[in-house]
Known about the structure:
- Belongs to the class-III pyridoxal-phosphate-dependent aminotransferase family.
- InterPro entries: Aminotrans_3, Aminotrans_3_PPA_site, PyrdxlP-dep_Trfase, PyrdxlP-dep_Trfase_major, PyrdxlP-dep_Trfase_small.
- GO terms for molecular function: pyridoxal phosphate binding; transaminase activity.
- The protein is α/β, with parallel strands linked by helices.
- 37% of the residues lie in helices and 18% in strands.
- It has two domains: 2-53 and 316-422, Aspartate Aminotransferase, domain 1 (Alpha-Beta Complex); 58-314, Type I PLP-dependent aspartate aminotransferase-like (Major domain) (Aspartate Aminotransferase, domain 2).
- It contains twelve helices and 16 strands.
- Strands 4-10-9-8-7-5-6 form a seven-stranded mixed β-sheet, sandwiched between helices. Strands 11, 12, 13, 15 and 16 form a five-stranded antiparallel β-sheet that branches.
- Helix 2 (58-68) packs antiparallel against helix 9 (299-314), helix 3 (81-90) runs parallel beside helix 9 and helix 4 crosses helix 8 (279-286).
- The longest helix is centred in the last third of the chain and has 20 residues, at 317-336.
- Bound molecules: 4'-deoxy-4'-aminopyridoxal-5'-phosphate.
- The site of 4'-deoxy-4'-aminopyridoxal-5'-phosphate (PMP) has 14 residues, from helix 4.
Amino acid sequence: ATRALTERREKSLGGSYRLFYRRPVHLVRGEGQYLWDASGRRYLDMYNNVASLGHCHPAVVEAVTRQASTLNTHTRYLHETILDYTDDLLTTLPAELDRAMYMCTGSEANDLALRVAKFVTGGDGVIVTREAYHGTSELTSSVSPALGSGQPIAPTARLVDAPDAYRVDTPDLGAWFAQRVSDAIDDMERAGTRFAGLLVDSLFSSDGVLPGPAGYLREAADVVHRAGGVVIADEVQPGFARTGEAFWGFARHGIVPDVVTMGKPMGNGIPVSGLVARTEVLDAFSDRIPYFNTFGGNPVSMAAARAVLDTIRSEGLQEHSAAIGAELLTALRGLATRHEAIGDVRGAGLFVGLELVSDRTALTPDRALALDVLEELRERGVLTSVAGPHGNVLKLRPPLAFASADIAWVTTALDEALTVLTS
Ligand code: PMP
């Protein structure tokens, strides 16, 4: 049955939207951190930061159902849901960030953020990290090297190495990264390109999940500001309490970006994204250029987003993410004492990267092993994926409902997978 569905999919959808796994998982239901396939088998979702509260969370289902049966319209009529949500959202952000706009995807949020940065600086030069992913639009994909060699990068953009505490040997990662940003600014200005800003995911998700020590982005942000650029924090992955330490990834570093973009977990699966910025930055743009997004900020997505904020607070999910994330790290580090192939385990809250290597001293990335581990984990009911420039970092990012019992599931599965594959 799975083969028939896969063939049907290929026939109508073609090669885009590539599926996970050699034998795709045919899902029919989700609840909490678990997913069920068509044969009734239960899986532990270790990958999903969209259903961040848990799949089909009742608070979101209820809010969406109530709002969808009352009113749904676009943002050019007055309605209160968008205002109620904005008031709530802004309480989670630094006071300087007090203008919000809404869209439906992370790509649209980053696309607008780049337009704003270019408009207010009069520049065109954007800095991103070497394996960054920021979106699907023409503009965002032109600064998304993670898309691979087929995707042209904007000639005005500069790629800098991400601050990888495992591979970069330096006593001061903050100064190291700031130097690279500074060099990139000099380089683009020598080429006659005016600097617009740094677009950065503070957890460096597609660069291999690099939480690094809290605070180390401060120097790079200072460099950007001194050069007249805009700091855009892409919070699509680290945002909404994921890192435990802070509600937003950038807040771990004690920086105040000029623009913050958000998406994925914002509506727990209902498509909604947002951009929040300093008043003077966003107003300079909005006063001159109209922006309209038919579905952006619609009452149903705002109701879902509000239920997400409420639930993060009422269920104490940020504190939970910090505590259970630390427990998960400890358990995985325990495994690393028995499996040479685990080169590094790092994380912030429930965002963990586990790096597989063929040589612990030379830090040789083992992509083939990582891909085999994914398949073995799947056989044991654990769904996840890989990230990083070498594709050898297991990305563990479960719904925040993740519990102690799940740690045992993951570690046993990983222990068995590595035993099967490496001994
Ligand atoms: N930024 C980051 C860091 C992302 O991970 C993604 C999606 N993977 C996006 C932006 C784009 O979001 P969307 O797919 O909702 O357009």
